[in-house]
Amino acid sequence: MVERLIPTALVEDNKFCPGCGHGIINRILAEVLDEMKLTDKAIGSMAVGCACLMVDTFGVDWIQSPHGRAAALATGIKRCRPENPVFTYQGDGDSMSIGFSETMYAALRNENITAILVNNGIFGMTGGQMAPTSLPGQKTVTSPMGRNTDLTGQPLNIINQMKDLNIGYLARGSVTSIKNINRVKKYIRNAFETQMSGGGYSMVEILSPCPTNWKMMPDKSLEHIDNTVTTYYPLGEFVKKGGDSNE
Amino acid sequence: MSKKDNTKSVLTLHPERCKGCRYCIPTCPKDAISISDRINQKGYKPVAVDMETCIGCGSCYTICPDYVFEIKEVQ
Lengths: 247, 75
Ligand SMILES: Cc1ncc(C[n+]2csc(CCOP(=O)(O)OP(=O)(O)O)c2C)c(N)n1
Ligand code: SF4
Ligand code: SF4
Ligand code: SF4
Ligand SMILES: [Mg+2]
What we know:
Shape of chain A: globular
Helix content of chain A: 25-40%
Order of helices and strands of chain B: EHEEHE
CATH class of chain A: Alpha Beta
Strand order of the largest sheet of chain A: 2-1-3-4-6-5-7
Radius of gyration of chain A: 17 Å
Number of strands of chain A: 7
Largest sheet of chain A: 7 strands, mixed
Largest interface: A-B, 26 and 28 residues
Bound molecules: thiamine diphosphate, iron/sulfur cluster, magnesium ion
Number of helices of chain B: 2
CATH class of chain B: Alpha Beta
Largest sheet of chain B: 2 strands, antiparallel
Oligomer: heterodimer
Distance between the termini of chain A: 25 Å
Strand order of the largest sheet of chain B: 1-4
CATH architecture of chain B: 2-Layer Sandwich
CATH superfamily of chain A: Thiamin diphosphate (ThDP)-binding fold, Pyr/PP domains
Strand content of chain B: 15-25%
CATH topology of chain A: Rossmann fold
Strand content of chain A: 5-15%
């Protein structure tokens, strides 16, 4: 058994709600940065959403972009500072609705950055509006009768949009169990290793609970991800230029 | 947890950080975690751990979103 100490980037208690997946994801991201000795050099790019609560609590250099534009900002940072590890950290509404274009074009350019996309299927910070990732029939404050896919289209599977592009690394994980948390930590590490070896665009999408806006108890939120959300968004590694493309 | 090199994995608890989500409770293989009756500074009922039962496995560290647990190696 190795020691499990709070990683150095977690300089203050996080400000997320009870049971929020962002807290677990913050910790594993901070662990990977420590283990790769990147914490002091890492530059984060964020835009809107509950991710913004990290500026005070997650101790790396941050720049906040206009809404949705974190991938475009990260592109500029990385081109000016190619030696620094540069990552985006965004929710699904931010990265896949407001900033869908910036997210996709960073991948299309195979920009040498790492994108962490936290998919909780909802606009969390603003009070639970429907997102492109919301599931068919999902009740939100802007789809009180449940998401109607005849009117709003099918849920956005960002991995399907990216998996045939010329990029370095693409994976989707979840934080519902010890096994899944350890696996998604490995994905985040693979993503940063891709960037640090000049391997091009790397992205990890992480299925994450928002118990507050799902109006579900935290334990039920994890069950919901395992039983339902993963049937729309399967887990695994989808592009791995450094090795095999599936586990 | 006793090991060949005579070190032990020992849990350190930061209950003031706990937000009472209860993720850790079913994750503990020894059922060592419970919810206490008091209310912490954040306004939640924080966890308590039976240190006699705890084996320092670290599962609680892995699942907790609020950095309540640490595992240290001591002689
Ligand atoms: C142009 C513009 N669009 C949207 C917003 C409001 N806004 C701030 S956070 C947010 C939702 C973010 O949701 P998501 O990215 O999924 O993050 P979460 O909070 O769910 O982690 C929105 C819509 C805004 N202030 N201005
Ligand atoms: S609103 Fe949702 S995503 Fe935001 S901190 Fe609360 S649980 Fe997390
Ligand atoms: S997982 Fe962490 S925050 Fe949640 S109840 Fe357990 S100790 Fe508290
Ligand atoms: S270290 Fe393991 S045994 Fe001890 S409280 Fe945590 S989960 Fe339970
Ligand atoms: Mg969201």
